[in-house]
Amino acid sequence: MTATPLENLVIIGSGPAGWSAATYAARAQLEPLVFEGAITEQNRMSGTLPLGQLALTSEVENYAGFPAGDLGAFLASALPESRCMMMPPHEGHGVTGPELMELMRQQAVNFGTRIVTDDIVKVDFSSRPFMLFPADGGRIAARCVIVATGARANWLGLSSEEQYKNRGVSACAVCDGALPRFRNKPLVVVGGGDSAVEEATYLTKFASTVHLVHRRRELRASKIMAQRAFDNPKITIEYDSALAEVLGDDSGVTGVRLSSTAGGPDRTLPVAGVFLAIGHTPNTAFLDGQLQLTEKNYIVWTQHFRTATSVEGVFAAGDVADDYYRQAISAAGTGCMSALDAERWLGHAGH
Ligand code: NAP
After folding, report:
1. Same domain, residue pair 89 and 74
2. 3 near 84, Cβ under 8 Å?
3. How confident is the model at residue 350 (pLDDT cuts 50, 70, 90)?
4. Is the N or the C terminus of the chain less surrounded, counting Cβ atoms within 10 Å?
5. Burial class (CB in 10 A: 0-12, 13-18, 19+), 189
6. For the domain that residue 139 is a member of, what is the CATH number?
């Protein structure tokens, strides 16, 4: 029987939190092993491929340190040719999500991070060392674990929504709202919660008008947020309405067909963009209840301003434990914190 390899620190996840944690941990000589996720059709369909949600976006204009400019030569010098070739060509406009993630991954590799391109599908945190079970079989023993598996935006599941993703359909107004295709154009936001109102309000900076499409007669958003939508002359609330189809052509989204949830007829609206704000789902199913989760299944940070979880020696970073900020830069920040927390914990445990 082959012995189970014992790792000092395993990081599960490969978004900004995972790679920032890996870079800090590798520089601290913790020899981290990252499970970056598997490249499978199932992961593609559910939005959980390696490199996380940022790999699904286009330009990233709000990650500090990447002003608009031509990164072409830098990317070619920083990344191996094989990884450069997997990305769309650089178009000279600052950094894109996939480029940013490749750069973060490479930075972690440069300091000695080892990477396995597979999912962890099961964990056993009930005894030490912890046991992790990759999808392709076998098992890994680990003294310390950082969970950075992120969250995925919820989608309606329409085929037209899939067809126009990144061509006018987005689940992140802060990421994509300022793109030229949306400037001075009518847009749709789907959802009735705080996120939907926040996204609609944010989009009014760029759009000519924003239709907030909500399936009921009353918003779920908090009173103060809802009032913001009522008071904004650029926001029209389309109550009792559901997005039935995204309409478009070769250039991208040109409109939407709305169905009525109150028995009225369908109608169409000409719009240049559709933003989904119907909630997120954290990628925590594989934990099978072994860490304390919130009622929405996010990992609970059990100590104030620390990344500790309910199991000592297991830390969490990024969107998997954060349903509030959900930004690349805040995920990278908590990734850094988790590596420092892990380093200190391993040190106290004598490793
Ligand atoms: P949420 O509160 O769960 O709201 C999701 C919205 O999407 C609901 O209005 C829901 O409709 C709608 N929805 C869900 N599935 C749908 C579907 N299949 N088709 C159509 N509509 C659908 O999620 P959230 O807005 O992302 O907020 C998450 C948490 O973060 C909340 O606790 C919120 O207060 C907080 N947050 C706070 C702020 C802030 O304070 N600035 C900003 C953003 C988020 P129903 O109402 O009919 O269920």
Report:
1. yes
2. no
3. confident
4. N
5. buried
6. 3.50.50.60
Instruction: Specify whether 144 is catalytic.
Output: no
Ligand 1 atom nearest to 191, measured from its CA: 7
Q: Are 14 and 146 contained in the same domain?
A: yes
- Domain extent for 85: 6-153+280-348
234 and 309 in a single domain? The answer is no
CA of 225 to the centre of ligand 1 (A): 12
pLDDT digit string, tens, across residues 41-57: 888 777 788 999 888 77
Measure the CA–CA gap between 181 and 18, rounded to whole angstroms. 32
Q: Are residues 55 and 142 in the same domain?
A: yes
pLDDT value of position 46: 76
Kindly state whether residue 13 falls inside one of the protein's structural domains: yes
Number of domains in the chain: 2
* Nearest Cα residue to 99 out of 84, 112, 113: 84
| Whole-number pLDDT of residue 87 | 81
> Are residues 233 and 141 both part of a single domain?
no
- On whether both 289 and 231 belong to a single domain, the answer is no
Tell me what pLDDT residue 2 has: 60
Per the document, the length of the chain is: 351
- In DSSP terms, 313 is beta-bridged to none
* Ligand 1 neighbour 36 (Cβ under 6 A): no
Instruction: Name the residue at shortest CA distance from atom 43 of ligand 1.
Output: 195
> What tens digit of pLDDT does each residue of 208-233 get?
999 999 999 999 999 999 999 999 99
> Could you tell me if the CB of 192 is within 6 A of ligand 1?
yes
Q: Convert the pLDDT of each residue in 278-320 to its tens digit.
A: 999 999 999 999 999 999 999 999 999 999 999 999 999 999 9
